[in-house]
Structure formats: C-alpha cells, structure tokens
TrEMBL record:
Keyword terms: Amino-acid biosynthesis, ATP-binding, Cytoplasm, Histidine biosynthesis, Hydrolase, Nucleotide-binding
Entry-linked HAMAP family: HisE
Taxonomic lineage: Bacteria, Pseudomonadati, Pseudomonadota, Alphaproteobacteria, Acetobacterales
Main location: cytoplasm
Source species: Sorlinia euscelidii
EC assignment: 3.6.1.31
Region (Disordered): 1-29
PANTHER family, per database record: HISTIDINE BIOSYNTHESIS BIFUNCTIONAL PROTEIN (PTHR42945), HISTIDINE BIOSYNTHESIS BIFUNCTIONAL PROTEIN HIS7 (PTHR42945:SF1)
Protein name: Phosphoribosyl-ATP pyrophosphatase
Family: Belongs to the PRA-PH family.
C-alpha cells in the first residue's frame, strides 16, 4: 500500500518537495484533526473514526508472510525492522517538512504515510493497536506533566 499525494516530487536526496503553494491553514488543519478525533466529519463531509487505523492494521497483518511482489506491506515486512524503521523515519521527516511549510493537504497526506508505516512497524514488532490505545487512555487520565513525571522525564 503506497500512500502519496501525487503533488510532490523527490529531490536528488530522496526527500519529497511540495509543489503546492504555502497554505495559511494551521487552524483549518487543527480543526479538521479535532473533528476527526471526535469521530465527526472530515473536510469532505464524510463520517470518520479512528477505526480506520484498526482496519489498516488488520490489512497489514494479513499481508505478513505473503508474496512481496504482490503487496507493498508484504515487501516492507519481508525486508525487516531496520528497513521498516528507515521508511517510517523518512515519512516522519517529510511530515515535519510539510508541517513547517504550512501545506495542509500535504501534511494530511504525509501524516497518513507516517501512520501507515507506524502500523507496519507495529505488525513487525507484534504490537496490536489496542496496546497503544490502552496506553493513550491511561495517559488521558492525567496531565501531560504528571504523565512525563511518571516516566521519570522532565517536562519541556
């Protein structure tokens, strides 16, 4: 499964470069993400919930051990955790670049790439999304400062 926007090109170093104009849409992105988080509607007006991540996990899980020539997920999984982590890191950097550039559409696209590659990493590590959801739920019950202190971290 290759997730891409089709509105970017790769430079010689392999980093995607956006061809879209800078958008002053930080508030729009934050608002759209908040609506999606609440299971409301996305910018296109479609009903959206985080259950799509569980379905994506099931799809990637079903590709484990299958023919790498037939599935991007199978190919990534066959190449091992080091390659999966490398791809995750590349996508995370591209996501950060789009966040700084202020391109809402590209940020959405790159965020989807990050989540996809994170899920591939979870599958490779044998981690179910419910483990992550449980940890997020545990953290939700306390302030960020208290949560960091519980892990021995100093708040930023």
């Amino acid at each position: 499964m290759a997730l891409s926007s089709g509105k970017s090109t790769r430079t010689a170093s392999g980093v995607k470069k956006s061809r879209t104009k800078k958008a002053s849409g930080k508030k729009k992105v934050a608002s759209a993400l908040l609506e999606i988080e609440k299971g409301q509607r996305d910018r296109a007006g479609d009903d959206i919930t985080a259950a799509v991540l569980d379905r994506l996990h099931e799809t990637v899980l079903s590709r484990r051990g299958t023919d790498p020539s037939l599935s991007h997920s199978a190919r990534l999984l066959s190449r091992g955790r080091k390659k999966i982590a490398q791809k995750f890191g590349e996508e995370a950097v591209e996501c950060l670049i789009e966040a700084v550039a202020g391109s809402a559409n590209e940020l959405v696209s790159e965020s989807a790439d990050v989540l996809y590659h994170l899920i591939v990493l979870w599958v490779d590590a044998g981690i179910a999304p419910q483990e992550i959801w449980r940890e997020l739920q545990r953290r939700e019950a306390m302030s960020g400062i208290a949560e960091k202190a519980s892990r021995g971290e100093k708040p930023a």
